[in-house]
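To: structure desk
From: M.T.
Subject: fold request, one chain
Message: Could you run this one when you get a chance? Sequence is below, nothing fancy, just the single chain.
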Amino acid sequence: MVSGVLVPLIYVAHNARYGAVVERIKNPAVSGAPRPVAPLFGWTHWLGLEQTGTIVMMVVCITAGAVLWRRYPRHPILLMAIATTAIVWEDPIMNWAPYAVYNPQLWHWPENWPLVSVSPTVEPFVVIGYVAFYLTPFFGGIWILRRLQRRRPLDSFVWRHPLVSLAAFIFCVGFVADAILEISLVRTGMYIYSQVIPFGSVFTGTAYQFPLLWESVLVTTVMIPAGVLLYRDDTGRTVAEKLAQRLRFLRGRPALGTFLVMFGILSACYLVLYGGSFAAIRGSGAATSVACTYPYPEAKVYDPQGYYAKAGQPGPYSAGIMDGWETGQSGRPDVATNSNGRCSPTP
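Reply: Done. Structure tokens follow.
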């Protein structure tokens, strides 16, 4: 058990990087990491606090999970916690699709690793905390559902349609929780949404713009199935357990079947509903508002469609490794930098 935790930690520590390192994203004209945009309250230690907080959170989660596993082995909530953590493998794709550009000063994986390199800049370690992000809304949603069921007759909507009701409550809780969390993290300098659709976004055009309508709605496409799969009916079995029973080849291993159902559904929802929706937005060219001023000058400006150049943000520019058909184009367009654009440096 101990070696199973220590070995991955040693592996992560051995491969950890800091700063813009590889030529693909590094701006050779800049030394150090100057910041043209002040973080929240002007405090410059947010990244250290957030990264330390992630480590503490994961230690607590792993410890609590180990203790609870001994008391409640193969409990559906514990299996879902593992499943929501496991889908982190898709995170580089989900950074690429909505133009989520992370601060290069975060501890991160080597930028030239195949899957990792899909991220616009770096793939940080902080995303390992998926469990707290995607699973927590379930507890708020199920609390609201049970509270309403206690107060309503058996023929009421919350009793006749518990899954629909739970999904609606998770949507509301998840939307609010995501908006508060992400707006705060963007404002502290952890990452930016370099391009957003102007409609439905807040703080549009600034370095901390946020696609409120799009991001906070679409993240619930993972939160909702995670919660619905944990709903127990009057037989005491969860939705995930009942679906797993249909996998005949795993009927002798119900816990494995339940986990595979959870992991498979969450992975598909994350990739198709969340990632696919943002990929469609990306391909449409509708995300025209760029985050000015680009806050990470030690890295090349992530500008796969030339919108930063049109807005006057000086280069050098990076298009990323998926700037062709994946973005609905044939490579980054040859766009001259506008000397009088919204993002042009002031004289």
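Reply (cont.): Residues 283 and 327 are 5 Å apart (CA to CA). Let me know if you need anything else for the meeting.
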